[in-house]
Amino acid sequence: MLDGVTTVRSLLPALTDLLLPSACGGCGAAADGWCPACADAFDGPVVARPVRAGPPVLAAGRYRGPLRRAVLGFKERGRRDLGPALARLLVPVVAEVLPPAPDGPVWLVGAPSRRSSARARGGDHVARLCRELAARLGAAGLDARASPVLALHGRVRDSVGLDPDQRAANLDGAVRVARSGLPDPGHAGHILLVDDVVTTGATLDVCCEALRRNGLSVHAAVVLCDATGRRSPYRTVPGRARPAHPGGP
Ligand SMILES: O=P(O)(O)OC[C@H]1O[C@H](OP(=O)(O)OP(=O)(O)O)[C@H](O)[C@@H]1O
Fold first, then answer.
1. Less Cβ around it within 10 Å: N or C end of the chain?
2. 161 phi-psi bin (left φ>0, alpha ψ -120 to 50, beta other)
3. Is the ipTM of this complex over 0.95?
């Protein structure tokens, strides 16, 4: 049962959607999605090279500038209105990882967040991104299905301060796979993992492994931001417990 504070907090993003006019996700200028200057600043798709082995990862851009601000807004600051604009950035990324005429449906499987994080954010932002992306791919003629089948056990702790191996250990065996909403093993089609940011690759690696244990193989991962190349992914912002980016510990 939700208490009053939790209920109000989870409603805030929806209320913000109703009350605030559209603003560019990158700079806040009046715009629907991106202003022309921010739209020009995107540098993707880029191949991400996380330290953890896992599926091939292609990102819409590097974790900086307007894209970084938009992802933080979408994830942490209630800017759920940015979902369509962010999903649009992933359409060419998906096109790049798929064969020219994919056989069967494309299953978009979002990387799961901890339940407490999703609650505090007013919902699972990656699941929302998958739905938006499926709609846009569908409009482009692709049979794409958002498939929210992964979840984390409650025992996973915040990854703040953890190095790559510790992040992987924290997630090891913690990903649950719901069978409904997934293709049968040996299916036609392609499974794509979807996430907002890749840093060490631990999250994508354990998600891939969980699906593999269920007989399902991941074709590739598509993410909004590649934070793997940052000089110090473990840098923290003075005065904040959280890292300088959401993928860092
Ligand atoms: O490549 P990795 O090193 O695994 O890091 C990337 C992960 O970290 C972030 O999750 P976050 O720490 O915000 O987790 P939460 O959503 O459960 O709070 C981000 O959303 C990715 O899922």
1. N
2. left
3. yes
Ligand 1 touching residue 124 (CB < 6 A):
no
Question: Per-residue pLDDT tens for 96-143?
Answer: 999 998 889 999 999 999 999 999 999 999 999 999 999 999 999 999
This prediction's pTM: 0.85
Q: Which residues of the chain have pLDDT under 70?
A: 1-21, 230-249
DSSP line for 134-176:
HHHHHHTT--EEE---EEE-TTPPP-TT--HHHHHHHHTT-EE
CA of 200 to the centre of ligand 1 (A): 9
- What's the domain range around 51? 2-226
In a domain, 245, yes or no: no
Does the beta carbon of 127 lie inside 6 Å of ligand 1?
A: no
Give yes or no for residue 166 CB within 6 A of ligand 1.
Answer: no
